[in-house]
Amino acid sequence: MIEALQFEFMRNALFAGLFASLICGVIGTFVVVNRLVFLAGGIAHAAYGGIGLALFLGIPYIIGTLGFSLGAALVMTAVTLRAAHRSDTFIGVLWAVGMAVGVILIDLTPGYNVDLMSYLFGSILAVPSADIWWMIAMGAAVLILTLYYYRDLTAISYDVEFARLRGVPVRGLYFLFMALVAVSIVFIIRVVGLILVIALLSIPPYIAEKYAGSLGIMMGIAVVLSIIFNIAGLWLAYVFDLTSGPCIILAAAAGFFISLAADAIIMKSRKYSDNSDNKVAAK
Amino acid sequence: MSKTDEPVISVENLFFSYNRTPVLEDVTFRVEEKEFLAIIGPNGGGKSTLVKLILGLLKPDSGKIRAFGKAPEKVSHRFGYVPQDVAINRAFPITVMDVVLMGRLRHRKRNRFTARDRQAAAHALEIIGMAGYEKRKIDDLSEGQRERVFIARALTTDPDILILDEPTASVDTGGRTELYSILRDLNLTKTIIIVSHDLMVMSSYVTAVACVNRRVHYHDEGEITQDMIDMGYQCPVELIAHGQPHRILKTHEGGP
Questions:
Q1: The domain spanning residue B246 has which CATH number?
Q2: What value of ipTM does the predicted structure carry?
Q3: Is the pLDDT reported for residue A28 higher than 80?
Q4: Å from B93 to nearest chain A CA?
């Protein structure tokens, strides 16, 4: 792995992974505790419509995707706030429509052929340095906003009605947070692909949740886990000459199942010790 | 808080429906200062909805609700609210202290919590008998303990009205009696509104009863009297399900 770092593309891949981990760990923590993984997935997929739109109109990629996914995020958030129990259907619809519009618009764009696979799985090994700077800026923005609103976001995530009674601007923060999710996703997709974004948003925070005593600690654990998965995945990709994105996802998935297995073992041993305690007590 | 003739809560000709299904119809009542109001009624009768309307979390279809003479959402900082479902977000990684500190959130002041905030939170935990649990994860507590933490959270807001939605649903009998005696002490300085089925346990300190079953029948007798029986006819499900108002009458009037 060390000798691999002499290649600039490998260093860039590593940096991209680090910053994607940072952003996904922080944002993903709120996504997971608020059960918004499906919504985040919806935003990420709907953003594909933005790619199609950008190509069709000949505008820069970033404007198309940002506009599209921000729009999708705001609509989905509005629906979620209004009719929470119906929002999953609505998100599913926007998810599908966004992708369909993207594909059709690319069909209609003459002489252009974009590989859907690179959108889904990204190309972390072909990250230009400029994108790294974008991710650093994004990571800083996400961190600053999250820290500034940490208490309010925690209160909203835990008990939204109580937060509202305490004068926390629930609607405003909800929209701000979803906008943050949308913008983060757009920048990270470009680097690591949409499937990897969803994996990094959900798997590390999910594992971290069980061991953390607060959202802050959960974010920290999620970021560290995510970095480990990224390095492990990149190493696998390098050694076995495989596509990097799926390798990182499979490394994360391995972590996920290992943590599930560890939980099951701990539960069993606890039950066992409880039982033996009871036996002692019975005697 | 000075004693005034103005009611703490006034509800006039209130109507509310969920998706065109009427939940509350033509509700009118007033809650006076330092009242200990018990809200009873069958499940699905609209008790929690009424509570959320009073808190300003829901908007009525028509009619008027005033708290301290103002729209409820304008005075939400004066309410201490203990929600019904304390099992929400069980896996959420948060400590007892951090939950209680939520009661110290203030509009437009979102820097760190101060030492005073922490003191207030610790004090509330002490009142409720949960001192020493500050650093425990909320998920590690029993239902009854979690209930107390939520009451402590409501207390740290230093409310004028404490509103509790079925706070004892998951607490054993001993815990309930203890909880109610804590509430009675708090009632010396605060108005208390409680949704509960435990009329019997509370009967000695309840000052008013509202029976909610789409319509609201409000009784502000100092003690539970013959009126309760009449109310029983308005609220048959409650009586059949719990059978407690009958026993209250016996204990209070020394037999039939």
A1: 3.40.50.300
A2: 0.82
A3: yes
A4: 5
Query: What tokens does B101 get?
Result: 């500190």
Query: Does B142 score more than 50 pLDDT?
Result: yes
In a domain, B18, yes or no: yes
Contact residues, chain A, for B81 at CB < 8 Å: 161-162, 165
Indicate the residue of B83, B103, B107 with minimum beta-carbon distance to A161: B83
Domain tally, chain A: 1
Q: Residue A236 maps to which CATH number? A: 1.10.3470.10
Local structure of residue B109 (DSSP, 8 states): B
pLDDT digits (tens, 9 = 90+) for A1-26: 667 777 888 888 888 888 889 999 99
Q: Report the DSSP pairing between strands B208-213 and B36-40.
A: parallel
Which residue in chain B is spatially nearest to A170 when comparing CA positions?
Answer: B107
What's the pLDDT at A230?
92
Establish if B70 belongs to a structural domain: yes
Q: How far apart are CA A58 and CA A49, in angstroms?
A: 14
Chain B hits for A209, Cβ within 8 Å: 91, 93
| Domain that includes residue B76, residue range | 9-88+162-253
Give residue A257's domain range: 3-271
Taking an 8 Å cut-off on Cβ atoms, the answer to whether B93 and A214 are in contact is: yes
Question: How many other CB atoms are there within 10 angstroms of residue B58's CB atom?
Answer: 20
Whether B66 has a pLDDT exceeding 90, the answer reads yes
Domain assignment present for B68: yes
Q: Provide, as residue numbers in chain A, all residues whose Cβ is less than 8 Å from the Cβ of B135.
A: 213
Q: What is the dihedral of CA A211, A215, A218, A224, to 10 degrees?
A: -160
**Taking a C-beta distance cutoff of 8 angstroms, is the pair A12, A129 a contact?**
yes
Is residue A165 predicted with pLDDT exceeding 60?
yes
Looking at the domain assignment, is residue A174 inside a domain?
yes
